[in-house]
């Protein structure tokens, strides 16, 4: 039996914004869970969807960060039951392939096919607008009152974790923290530079400190974000529009940065190339930004001569479930900042305003109350 729910839709690539409308949601099939979404995180990636990036199939229900309660489970689901409090993880996984078994569920090939098609794992849709099937962003579509998703994208949360806080963990928090704490090889007293102090960058700062970094430097042109970076544990901040980053880092550590985490929304090839000279010998650049660049204009000798590395980093570079558990435990122990990331709360019908403020630098990360 289907039911009517309100959802924020991106009708086509390059749309003016989101369209909030009533749609029809199917029952969960085998291995799927229906969730009553209470809060959804307004992540920058959803605006890339509006711009026509990230996804090819339109129309699509937007949103990929969320939290709420399970209301129904499909056949074969044993890890969840109605009433469970949960958050969403944005990569579906088969749980059976070699990468899944190794703990790299974020690299599951079967899951990635569904992820970018916007279907569930059986390659079909659960949301409909009349006769039109609607894709779900990253097989989720959390900008809706209810969703049906694969159980692999669901994570049970403890009662002590507030729902609005839980709703923002499943993407930017895990990505930023994991990029520094797991994908990077940060040794005690290393110098770490985080380029981009938005949601992902602020969590990368915290991840670097938990990994034992000696000095953390944050670079961002927005004053509010530089102030946030200091609050989240950066030792120094740089405005790259006024100060040369390489010179600023050299003044702090003459050898350069041992690790750079690149966490801007969209990185050009030139920006990536400009960061290579900022690295110390044997330094690493962790690339966790989006990019539509076709090439990076660097000389191979820049990597060879000083043994520098560029590492791709998807979803924090580790098991999303492991990283999510680490962050929640640290937060509940009073050793991780999450409440401070949420700068505003909006209704679903205020979603365009939420993104106007996010893009304008007024919000670091807001939530939608469903």
Automatic annotation (TrEMBL):
Could you tell me which species this protein originates from? Halobellus clavatus
Gene Ontology CC: one annotated term: cytosol
Record-level Gene Ontology MF annotations: adenyl nucleotide binding; anion binding; S-(hydroxymethyl)glutathione dehydrogenase [NAD(P)+] activity; zinc ion binding
Q: Return the PANTHER family for the record.
A: ALCOHOL DEHYDROGENASE, ALCOHOL DEHYDROGENASE CLASS-3
Which cofactor(s) are needed, names only? Answer: Zn(2+)
Decide whether keyword Ribonucleoprotein is in the record: no
Record's protein name = S-(Hydroxymethyl)glutathione dehydrogenase / alcohol dehydrogenase
Q: Which UniProt keywords apply?
A: Metal-binding, NAD, Oxidoreductase, Zinc
Q: Which residues form the Enoyl reductase (ER) domain?
A: 14-368
Q: Name one Pfam family in it.
A: ADH_N
């Amino acid at each position: 039996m289907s039911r009517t729910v309100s959802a924020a839709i991106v009708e086509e690539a390059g749309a003016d914004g989101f369209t909030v409308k009533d749609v029809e949601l199917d029952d969960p099939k085998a291995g799927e869970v229906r969730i009553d979404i209470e809060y959804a995180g307004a992540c920058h990636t959803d605006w890339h969807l509006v711009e026509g990036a990230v996804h090819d199939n339109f129309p699509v229900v937007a949103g990929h960060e969320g939290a709420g309660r399970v209301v129904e489970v499909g056949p074969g689901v044993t890890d969840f039951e109605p009433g469970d409090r949960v958050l969403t993880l944005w990569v579906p996984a088969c749980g059976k392939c070699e990468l899944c078994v190794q703990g790299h569920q974020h690299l599951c090939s079967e899951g990635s096919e569904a992820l970018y098609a916007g279907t569930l794992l059986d390659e079909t849709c659960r949301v409909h607008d009349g006769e039109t099937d609607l894709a779900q962003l990253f097989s989720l579509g959390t900008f809706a009152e209810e969703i049906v998703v694969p159980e692999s994208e669901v994570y049970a949360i403890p009662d002590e974790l507030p729902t609005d806080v839980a709703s923002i963990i499943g993407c930017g928090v895990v990505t930023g923290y994991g990029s520094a704490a797991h994908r990077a090889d940060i040794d005690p007293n290393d110098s770490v530079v985080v380029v981009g102090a938005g949601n992902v960058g602020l969590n990368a700062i915290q991840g670097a400190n938990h990994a034992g970094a000696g000095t953390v430097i944050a670079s961002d042109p927005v004053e509010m974000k530089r102030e946030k970076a200091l609050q989240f544990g950066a030792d120094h901040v740089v405005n790259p529009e006024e100060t040369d980053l390489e010179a600023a880092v050299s003044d702090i550590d003459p050898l350069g940065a041992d690790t750079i985490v690149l966490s801007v929304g969209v990185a050009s090839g030139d920006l990536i190339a400009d960061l290579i000279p900022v690295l110390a010998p044997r330094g690493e650049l962790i690339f966790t930004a989006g990019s539509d660049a076709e090439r990076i204009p660097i000389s191979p000798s820049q990597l060879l001569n000083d043994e520098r590395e560029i590492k791709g980093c998807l979803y924090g570079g580790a098991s999303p479930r492991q990283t999510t558990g680490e962050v929640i435990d640290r937060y509940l122990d009073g050793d991780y900042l999450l409440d401070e990331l949420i700068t505003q709360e909006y209704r679903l019908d205020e979603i365009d305003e939420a993104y106007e403020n996010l893009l304008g630098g007024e919000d670091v990360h807001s939530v939608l109350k469903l």
